[in-house]
Amino acid sequence: MLHFLPSPLKGLIASTLMLLNILFWVPVLLLVAMVKLLLPFRRVRLIIDPLLLRIAEAWIAGNSGWMRLTQAMQWDVSGIDGLNPRQWYLVVCNHQSWVDILVLQHVLNRRIPLLKFFLKQQLIWVPIMGLAWWALEFPFMRRHTEAYLQKHPEERGKDAATTRAACEKYALVPTSVMNFVEGTRFTLAKQQRQQSPYRHLLKPKAGGVSLALQAMGEKFGAVLDITIAYPDGAPNFWQFLQGRVPRVIVQARTLAVPRVSADDDAASDPSQALRTLSQDWVNQLWADKDALLNKLLDKPAAPAK
Prior knowledge:
The chain is an alpha/beta fold and 305 residues long. It has helices at residues 7-38, 42-70, 99-108, 129-135, 146-151, 158-170, 188-194, 207-216, 237-241, 270-298; strands at residues 74-78, 88-93, 115-117, 119-120, 140-141, 176-180, 220-229, 247-255.
């Protein structure tokens, strides 16, 4: 509706509407979360957790509203029919921009349970949003470098404990555990530094997938593998707010949850067997995803409707 406005004005309007949406829903979210904090009983969680998820879904719907109002972006979405909002999902996706999060939320809201992201510990200090992520029990990870862990071995394993604790909470109410398997946003500089074998992706890290499967593998009904492509180049957040993203492609596919076979040679050590399986699984997944991105990004854009 406001697509005709100059890009900077659209960016200002979109930013204002996004902020107003945050300022409306976050206080409601925190008020409800405080009840759970003061009454940390299982029966209370079974009532409060679904309510928090409904509030978050309404927040996301508000974001979708201002996006429709200010954006003329062409959405090319496939593979999301038949998803179940009452089923637990492990969701994996490539990562190029902060815009990915809004894209995923817009496409998947109320089709599957709320996406729960693994966040860097520093993000808890982001004004307003840090409190919202805390209220929704997004796990905050420290992600120390290997050099730091060698100097401070006592820190090793704490992220794994955080992941397990979060997943145990998620077992009460249907949840979608979201994992950006690359661990960071794709850039050409990172790709070259890693010597990644993929054209459009960084090397996948299976640690988060493995820990989620260890903690609640029996709960997951399916894996949702999502590929996001921006044919005109991955945007930064301000470009997105200005409506300067002509087209986004989102392709999803539902996969079986990887499980260790009882006949597996490493089954005597289930944790190690699952780590090995997870790494092999994501390696194959990433090879397929890179091939798909080659097709999507080399294909001419569809004519505007």
